[in-house]
Structure formats: C-alpha cells, structure tokens
Amino acid sequence: MRKVWLILVVLLAVTAVLAFSDQVLTVLMPIGGGYTIDQEEAISAGFEQTHPNVKVDMTFVGWSDLWNKIVTSIAAGSAPDVMYIGSRWIPELANMGAIIPLDSYITPQKKSMYYPTVWYTVTYKGHIWGVEKSMSTEVFIYNKKLFESAGITSTPTNWDELLTDAKKIYDPSKGIYGIAMAGENFISTLSQFQNYLYANNGWIVDPNTGKVTINATPAVQALTLYKELSQYAQPGIISWKREDLYKLFETGKVGFYMDEIYNVPTFIKDGMDIGLFYVPGGPSSTKPYGTEIITDSMAISSQAKNKELAWEYIDYMTSLQQQTKWDTSLGFIPPMLEESKAAAFQPWYWQFYIKALNYGQAENTGVINWTPTRTIIVDAIQSVLLGNSTPKAALNEAARAIEALQQQ
User: Residue 301 forms beta bridges with which residues?
Assistant: First the structure.
C-alpha cells in the first residue's frame, strides 16, 4: 500500500511539473502604425527568459482588423489571455464583460510611476481596465518664417488670437494658408476636433454623470471655431486626413497645424525653422491649454485561464526598462515620470509634447459604442464645414444619435 501511495505522489508531482512547464500564454497584438512583429516578439522573448516554463503564443493582426478579431474571439469563447487594445474601446469591452478590472493588480508603486493624467485613458466607472503601452499628445507646429512675415511676434494664447493669426498669414494668391486642417471621414478628424473640445472644458460624454454633452455650449463653441478657422485653411478640407497634413506643412506654405510628434524631428532635420505651441484654452475653459491623450493599452481577457500569469506579462511589458525601449524605438510619448528623463527625450520638442500631459484628457471618457459615435461626430463636423448645418444644429442631431447608442 505504501508503494502505491508513493507511486501516486510521484505521478502527481510529475503531472504538476509537466503542467507548469507547458504553460502557454496567448497574446493578441496589432501590426501597423509603427508596430512590428520583430519588436513585439523581442519583448516577449525577454519575458520567456525570465519565465522559462512559459511559452508566449502571439497572434498578430492589422489594426483595421483588431477590433473584429477581439469581438469574434470573445463570442467564440477563445479570447486570448492578454489583449492589446485601443484604450478608447475600454467602456465597450468592460460593459460586455470581455476584460477584467486591474485595480487589485496595480500597486501604489506601479501607479505612481506614471503621469496622473495617463490613468484617465484606461479608467472607466471608477476602475482601471488596462495599462498604457503607447501614447501620443497633440500640439500646434508653426512656421516661424511665416509668423514673422505676417508680423506675429508671439504665439496665440486664446482662440481669438488663434483665429487672428491664421487670418494674418492667409494669402491664397501666393498659395499660403494660415492653418492646415483635417476633415476627412476618419478617426483623426475627430481627434483634431477633440483637442479644441478639451481645451474648452467640453466632453462627448461627461465622465462624471454619463450624460451626452456633445451639444453643450463648450462643444458648440469648439465646432464654431473649427468652422471659422477653416476659412483660412487649405481648400478641400474634407478630403484631408491629419496624417497627411505634414506634407502640406513641409512645403513652407502653412502657418501652423496640429499634429503628434512624429514629423517634428524630420522638419528640423530638413532645416525648417519651426516652433511649437499648445492648443489654447477656449472661452469656457478653466485651463490655459488642452490636448487629447491617445493611448493603446494592454488588458486581461475575462476568459484568461491564468490571470496572474497574464498580469505578470503585462507588468513586464510595461516595466520601466521595457517601456523605455518601446517608446524610444517607436517614437511614442513616455508615460512614466522616470522614463521622461531618458536622454532620448531631452530635446526641447520632446519635452514640449511630454509637458502637454499636464493639460490632457483621455480620447474616450465614457463613450460606449466608440466607432459609430466617432462616425456620427465626424458627419456633424463635415456638415458644418460644407455649410449644410450650423454647429448647434449639427451637434444637437449628433447628441440624439449618441444618446441612443449609449442606451444600447
């Protein structure tokens, strides 16, 4: 009998070792927009070295297919353990029970590593649902020579000055435009508008009450400014994405435009005399500036078989060392206070974009159905730009449609 028990004990021990040695962590990651398979696999390889009994099984899809991949895998009961997501999707994923809150995993030490505003981007209904992995802010980039030629001696500090300076620079007879703007039916058009919205203390959905406020006074004022600025912008705004405006700016024929940091080093390298200024606060704002903070984050699926291991992976991927490697190689804004001290982020333009975090708000502050909501607002913007509607009427219509989506 003792031999039988001994054999059973040995078998159980061997089974436990084999089970542990065969742990597989499934991870869904995007490709495109700067992300590469080699970079993502390299970080995972480092995790495997520190966890020799774990195999990281990575699935890669293009950004355009990422949302559908997440939703279909959830419906099929085959969701990955760890998902890389656009933080704007958190409300919808949280409401469908697809991801878990991470409050119990995030230590006070981990939380204190980040700029406080970064956590806004992954917080919903009082809980944290992801850890930021990639981030950007937006500011205005301006052509110093055109400012000087127009007699402008300082950068705008309010919306009246912003409009006045665009008008001073504008000279269509010479092909010179005061500002370059986005208006295409694309996500970055909403992003451009939201910078003005947040600089004016406005919201799509109030994060405190859940009320749709896209037709409130701050939003109407923001869209009114967007329309007024368009008088001094390049022709055919509704055919321009934000991602293509740099091409217009680098011709030297645009006074200023709003963008992320990616093209700034190239402008400087090519000898352009440029400067930066923040989006000034609007008439309803209590802050001097505003910016939209766009982040992607890592979340744990509610279907994850080993949530503790999933968290260890996320914690490793977002450690100071790995995050710094990621941001310096891909050109993202560092979310961590200590990380921002790295040599790569010391050039003046990096510091300018990093400090914008002090004035930022999350891309999504409570919108449940993000993609259709985005389309509704961009439709409203285009309607105003084309002169088919007033800002108030367009946003009233948008608010009614968004309210219906919020109740689904």
Answer: 99
**Amino acid at position 259, single letter:** D
The parent domain of residue 375 ranges over 139-259+369-406
Give 231-262 as a DSSP string: TTB-S-GGG--GGGHHHHHTTT-EEEEEE-ST
Residues of the chain with pLDDT under 70: 1-21, 33-34
Please, what is the end-to-end C-alpha distance for the chain in angstroms?
63
Burial class (CB in 10 A: 0-12, 13-18, 19+), 139: buried
Tell me: the pLDDT tens digits for 227-239? 999 999 999 999 9
Task: Identify the CA nearest to 254 among candidates 140, 382, 387.
Answer: 140
The verdict on 96 and 13 lying in the same domain is yes
146-172 exposure pattern, b = at least 16 Cβ within 10 A, e = fewer = bbeebebeebbeebeebbebbbbbbbe
Question: Residue 5: is it exposed, middle or buried by C-beta count within 10 angstroms (0-12/13-18/19+)?
Answer: exposed
Cα-Cα-Cα-Cα dihedral sign, residues 130, 100, 204, 242: positive
Angle value at C-alpha 285, between 388 and 336, nearest 5 degrees: 110
Concatenated DSSP letters of 60-80: EEEHHHHHHHHHHHHHTT---
Are 122 and 199 within one domain?
no
Whether residues 254 and 385 fall in one domain:
yes
323: which residues sit within 8 A by CB, 6+ positions away? 133, 317, 334, 335, 336, 339
Q: Residue 8 falls within a domain, yes or no?
A: yes
Q: What pLDDT, in 10s, does the model give residues 97-122?
A: 999 999 999 999 999 999 999 999 99
Distance between CA atoms of residues 56 and 28, nearest Å = 10
Distance, in Å, from the CA atom of 361 to the CA atom of 371, rounded to the nearest integer, reads: 19
**What's the predicted TM-score (pTM) here?**
0.91
Residue type, 349: Y
Residues 6+ apart with CB under 8 A from 311: 102, 105, 300
